[in-house]
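Operator note (shift B, R.M.): manual run for Y-family DNA polymerase requested after the automated queue skipped it. Running by hand, logging everything below so the morning shift can see what happened. Input copied straight from the record, untouched. If output looks odd, do not overwrite the archive copy; leave it for review.
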Amino acid sequence: MKAPIALVDCNNFYTSCERVFDPQLQGVPLVVLSNNDGCVIARSEEAKALGIAMGTPLHHIPRSAYRQGLVLKSSNYELYGDMSRRVLAVLRESTPLVEPYSIDESWVELAGLGGERLEAECHRLRDKVKRWTGLQVSVGCGPSRTLAKLANRHAKRHPATNGVSVINGPVRADSRALLARTLVSDVWGIGGRVSARLQEMDIRSALDLATADPTLIRRRFSVVLERTLRELGGLHCIDMIDDSEGKKMIMTSRSFGKMTADRDQIMASLMAHASRGAEKLRRQGSLASAVMITLRTNKFAEGVAQHRDSKVIALPWPTDDTFEIVRAVRRELDAIRQEGVRYHKSGVLLMDLVDRHGRQLDAFQAKRDDNQRQRSEKLMTTLDSLNRRFGKDAVTVGYCQRIGLRRNTSTDKERRSNTRGEEPDWWLRSRYCSNRWTTRLEEIPKVTLE
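Run finished. Output pasted below as returned.
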């Protein structure tokens, strides 16, 4: 019998991360804005109560919301990513198999537990995450992922659950009643069109789908929906994946703070992405065999010349060396850039990844100076060590640093005031960005004793 699986979901994750280090934000309407402070991507419960919808452009937020104390924050992905890693670390101390699902959700296998012990363990996990990270999570548990997802939804929406809900399939009366109350459109993975077709067959609730004929569902829809049906019935159809297996590709991409045609600015953005991607390569123990660089304009900008292009660059041998990858990017930029065109976004994709310990050297690579490879590995180890010790981008490729990759002041606000007129076009606008409390020594919280 398969072990129960739980979905651990951080509540209002981005706004909750902001509140961990700024208690004054507790109970205040709070929204987090997208890259370049464009639109709302996260809301606290208080902001939702003001009627602010997801995706609302910044300039469309009503003035009445500000009069009721609305606070804006720019997206601080360095903080959110580190807080996500901390939550994962807490979960991995409690159970051996944890699979990240998104930045704020993880699947957790809870082997050897059942009944009251299972619910007690879910509460223990929830309390431990809160105590060690300051973040509130909801835990939904069941014999399948689909039921765990449904249970998590119930736990988040009903305060009486105290953040934990366990579903054991449509066998127990309470679980059966919950499935009967859940619309089929609210089941994980069922979209609007499929939901409408199911309702035409008089399948309106999750329970209706769980008790439908699986052969009929597969014939009229797909094997995917049949799997959802069986999972609602308590059958474990999707196995856990050990996330220690590295990614097959690594993409680093970002929109610019403002459009630019300046070659140096565009080059600096691509080199920054290449450097970040190479760092991720080394972290997961992989080597890249090819690099793809991309550029594109803003398709929504009127009266602006439109252009988008990409180019794949084969590397001489698989590598994780920042300088080799950056050299490849610098060499090919002019192959895709058009003079005078103002670009809005750039990206670097590292492709054809291989395990650094299992790679096979070809005849040409075998001739490469072994001392040179060893120097490269030592240099990259030193580079990563310095950036871990002194903060991200403390040491970068010289060209990026000259163009303005580094942020030397404690906050984005101070950086803008100190570098007025010098801020690179490709830097993101982050007018309301909080400190990166957990990853930058110069930005850690300060306590003054009177």
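Quick read of the result: The chain has a mean pLDDT of 82. The radius of gyration is 25 Å.
Leaving this for review. - R.M.
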